[in-house]
Design a protein that fits this description.
Layout (H helix, E strand, L loop, with lengths): L1 H22 L11 E4 L2 E5 L19 E5 L2 E4 L5 H11 L7 E5 L3 E5 L21 H15 L3 E2 L3 H9 L24 H11 L36 E7 L24 E5 L15 E5 L8 E2 L3 E3 L12 H19 L1
Parallel strand pairs: 8-11
Antiparallel strand pairs: 1-4, 2-3, 4-12, 5-6, 7-12, 8-9, 9-10
C-alpha cells in the first residue's frame, strides 16, 4: 500500500511538472538584426579635405585611393539598446561602470553611468551608447555563436563604401550641407537648446531642426541608396581598423587595416558622426577615433557586418517581430515630433 501511495505521488508530481512546462512558452531564439547585402564594387576612398580643427581626433583623409570591395552584409540599422540588452542578459557581460558625458563644469567628464542609464538609453530602439570597441566586438562574437553566422565590425573601407552607396559627393545625400537636417540626426537647434538647458553649455550648432535633441529611434531618416539607415548622424560607429594618421599604405582590397597601428592598438576608427556632430564630421569621408576602452555617450555606438557565405538567402529574411516593434517605435517618435 505504501508503495502504491508513493507511486501515485510520483505520477501526480510528474503530471504537474508536465502541465507547468506546457504552459511556459519556449524562449525565443536569438535572431540576427536586419541585414543589407552590399554589392561588390570599387570607389575612391578619402578626400583632399584638410584635417578638422587641430586634427587631434581626426586622422587625415588623404591620399584618396581606389579600393575594391567584395560583397558583404551590413546591418540595416545601428545596434539598438534592446539588442545589446539581450546580449548582456544572456551572458552576464559587464561593460565599464563609467562613461564620458556632457558636464556642466568641464564641458565633458567621465561619470558613473553606463549603456543602460536611462538618460543614455531612453528607448529600446535608440542606438546603444557608452560601449567600447571591445564591447562591440564581444556583442558580434556572441551573436555569431548564437546564430552560426560570421558577424564582425566592418572595415573602415567597407563602411565608407556602404555609406557612399555609389555617390561621390560630400554627403550621401549630395553636396548641400544646409539641408542635412532632413537626412540625419545632427548638431542642430534642438541639440543646442538641450545642452544649454541640461548642462549650461552654449555650443555652436547648425541652424536647422532634425526633430531630435539627442539620440533618436533608429531609421527615422531616409535610407541611402543601399537601404542603410543612419549611416551619418545619430551615433558614430566603431569600425575594425586601428588608427593610422592617414591613408599611406592602406590596403586597396577593403580588408581591415591592423598593421603598423599608430598607437599599438590603443585607438580605433569611428565613422559617420553623431547627434553631437557638426556638418564637417558628417561627410562620407570624415574620420574620427576613440580609445579602445573608451566608453562615451557623446556619440560612439556601432553596427555589425557579416561575411557572405556564412548562410544562404534566408539570411535576408527579417525578424517580423523586430520589424513590427520598430515600426511602432518610429510611429510613436513621429507623433512626438508633431506635438
Amino acid at each position: 500500500m505504501k508503495t502504491l501511495i508513493v507511486s501515485l505521488s510520483l505520477l501526480c508530481a510528474s503530471a504537474a511538472a508536465d502541465a507547468a512546462t506546457a504552459t511556459i512558452a519556449p524562449a525565443k531564439p536569438v535572431s540576427a538584426p536586419p541585414m543589407v547585402t552590399v554589392p561588390t564594387g570599387q570607389f575612391t576612398m578619402g578626400s583632399t579635405e584638410p584635417r578638422i580643427g587641430d586634427g587631434s581626433h581626426n586622422p587625415a583623409e588623404q591620399p584618396p585611393h581606389l579600393v575594391r570591395i567584395q560583397s558583404f552584409r551590413l546591418a540595416r540599422y545601428e545596434t539598438t539598446v534592446g539588442q545589446f540588452r539581450q546580449f548582456v542578459a544572456a551572458t552576464g557581460y559587464r561593460t565599464q561602470d563609467a562613461c564620458w558625458q556632457f558636464d556642466r563644469a568641464d564641458g565633458m567628464a567621465r561619470k558613473d553611468v553606463k549603456w543602460d542609464t536611462p538618460d543614455h538609453a531612453p528607448g529600446e530602439f535608440h542606438p546603444v551608447l557608452c560601449v567600447t570597441w571591445d564591447d562591440a566586438n564581444a556583442y558580434a562574437a556572441w551573436l555569431s555563436g548564437q546564430t552560426g553566422r560570421r558577424f564582425r565590425l566592418p572595415s573602415e573601407a567597407e563602411w565608407e563604401y556602404a555609406a557612399r552607396a555609389g555617390t561621390t559627393t560630400r554627403y550621401p545625400s549630395g553636396d548641400d550641407a544646409d539641408g542635412l537636417c532632413a537626412y540625419a540626426n545632427m548638431k542642430d537647434r534642438r541639440f543646442k537648446a538641450a545642452l544649454k538647458q541640461d548642462y549650461g553649455l552654449d555650443m555652436l550648432a547648425t541652424d536647422c531642426d532634425d526633430g531630435a535633441a539627442l539620440t533618436t529611434v533608429v531609421g527615422m531618416y531616409p535610407a541611402n541608396a543601399f537601404g542603410l539607415y543612419d549611416m551619418i548622424g545619430n551615433v558614430a560607429e566603431w569600425v575594425a581598423d586601428c588608427e593610422h594618421p592617414d591613408y599611406q599604405g592602406a590596403p586597396a582590397d577593403g580588408t581591415v587595416w591592423r598593421g603598423a597601428c599608430e598607437k599599438e592598438n590603443e585607438y580605433f576608427i569611428t565613422r559617420g558622426g553623431s547627434y553631437a556632430s557638426a556638418r564637417t564630421v558628417l561627410r562620407s569621408a570624415a574620420r574620427g577615433h576613440g580609445g579602445r576602452t573608451n566608453a562615451s555617450s557623446l556619440g560612439e555606438g556601432f553596427r555589425i557586418a557579416e561575411d557572405i557565405g556564412a548562410c544562404d538567402e534566408t539570411c535576408a529574411v527579417n525578424d517580423a517581430d523586430f520589424d513590427a516593434a520598430l515600426a511602432l517605435a518610429q510611429k510613436t517618435e513621429r507623433d512626438r515630433r508633431l506635438n
